[in-house]
Amino acid sequence: MQGIIRSSVYLPYRRLDTKEISGFFGAGGARTARTVASHDEDTTTMGVEAARPLLRDGIVIDNLSFTTPTPAYGDKNNASTLHAALRLDASVGAWDTGNSLRSSMGQLLSGIRQPTTTLLVSSDMRDGLPTSTDESNGGDGAAALILGMGTDEHPVIAEFVGSASLTDEFLDRWRNPGERRSRVWEERFGETRYLALGKSVFAAALENAGVIFEQVDRLIVTGLHARAVKAVGNKLSNGKDILRDELTGQTGQIGGAHPLIALSAAIEEGLAPGSIIVLIHLADGADAIVLKTTDAAIRVDAESSVATQLAAGAPVSYGKFLSWRDMVNVEPPRRPEPARVSSSAAWRSEDWKFGFVGSKDPGDGTIYLPPARVSRDSGDVDSMEPVAMADRVGTIVTFTIDRMAYSPSPPTVFAIVDFEGGGRFPVELTDVDAQRIAIGDQVVMTFRRLFTADGIHDYFWKARPVRLIDET
């Protein structure tokens, strides 16, 4: 049986109330909210956070496919950074697989048919000029799926039943390399094209899957052409209560990652075994996939569930959003900006820098962060054992709020953290209200971008507060 073995979503902690836009500029905005990647996040870090929960059960991955329309690097393979942060074996291939809004569906349809086990990660950050519709209706986030045959230990939770794809070359939305603003053609033209494509691909997918309309339990239609998505969804649902994409009003439309995010949220609902899900994505054509839920238990970490992440968000001001997006330049702390990271030094400390792997003294069990070569007690050299720390919960022992250190979003909060099972480390906190932090708070590690200098992103780990749904 081929299909989806695991799925997970990452939604940034911050939310922008888009009504603020009209109050700021006197135009633009909407009556919705959107997710906002923090100043230390990009599509790579969000992809890492989406994928991390999927690997905690020990599923063996054969290859990693990373797709985003907004990559952190050009030329350089961004998937290699995910590979390092997720501590995958060197034999696991890792590739960037396209930068269009259609790429994630293409990789889903390709990967789900393969006999190998694929980790598919899709991430996006949607920008637009201030007061634009794209700015108000966009969002940031990532999704990760493990695709494969499944085993007795790790069974398929959604079986692949069939699919269909239609390609049509017409100008609807485009953005030249290096541009942040997308341009769009007249909406009625795209709506007409997508309506015809959506109807045709839906019919073809059902036929290929051997499924009739009455058997469909959940229909998801996604795409950045909002009018077309609504028209196709209303037409295909034909009055039946099967149409779902309840995330958009809370997260915004997350571009290339949105179809996988919406699909993961639908799977997480816990539909009855045997339920038929149809996902349609409209982008330079139309793709549809038909899935059937199985009786396998859906495993979702409490803190990484879509419901928890939606409920645990906190507001960000529009001014800070503009600053984080480099739409406005605010006065930074008057301290020297950081120098670029050394490529050779980063390679030598790859396990520590990207995987947050410390060292453990086999004699007395002491954990060293960062890793050490020499035992403090015995003096033995190079006898340490590696110990993975990224998934361990920590407790804040003490902290300081620094308003003078260089930061794109001051103040900087540093804490001394003690980890479960041993290990102490001074670490920067993120996604935190400096006024609410307290000694004794629990934190978890999160992969972030410290800064960018000379076009080089310095990735490392920060800590963020543990958040459960009942804390909101």
Question: How would you describe this structure in keywords?
Answer:
ChsH2_C; acyltransferase activity; NA-bd_OB-fold; Peroxisomal Thiolase, Chain A, domain 1; five-stranded antiparallel β-sheet; 13 helices; OB fold (Dihydrolipoamide Acetyltransferase, E2P); alpha+beta; single chain; 472 residues; nine-stranded mixed β-sheet; Thiolase-like
Structural overview:
The chain has helices at 19-25, 43-51, 78-85, 103-111, 133-137, 187-209, 226-237, 248-251, 258-268, 306-311, 318-324, 343-348, 350-355, and strands at residues 3-10, 14-17, 33-36, 63-67, 93-96, 118-125, 140-148, 158-167, 173-174, 183-184, 216-222, 276-282, 285-293, 314-315, 357-360, 367-368, 385-388, 394-402, 412-419, 424-429, 442-453, 456-465. The protein has 472 residues and is α+β, with helices and mostly antiparallel strands. The strands form 5 sheets. A 9-stranded mixed β-sheet has the order 5-4-6-7-1-8-13-12-11, with helices on both faces. The radius of gyration is 23 Å and the shape is globular. The model has no long low-confidence stretch (mean pLDDT 94).
The figure for the number of domains is: 2
The proportion of strand residues reads 25-35%
In quaternary terms, these chains amount to single chain
CATH architecture level-2 label of the largest domain: 3-Layer(aba) Sandwich
Report the mean per-residue pLDDT as an integer. Answer: 94
The radius of gyration is 23 Å
* CATH first level of the largest domain: Alpha Beta
Largest sheet: 9 strands, mixed
User: What is the CATH topology descriptor of the largest domain?
Assistant: Peroxisomal Thiolase, Chain A, domain 1
Shape: globular
Low-confidence stretches: none
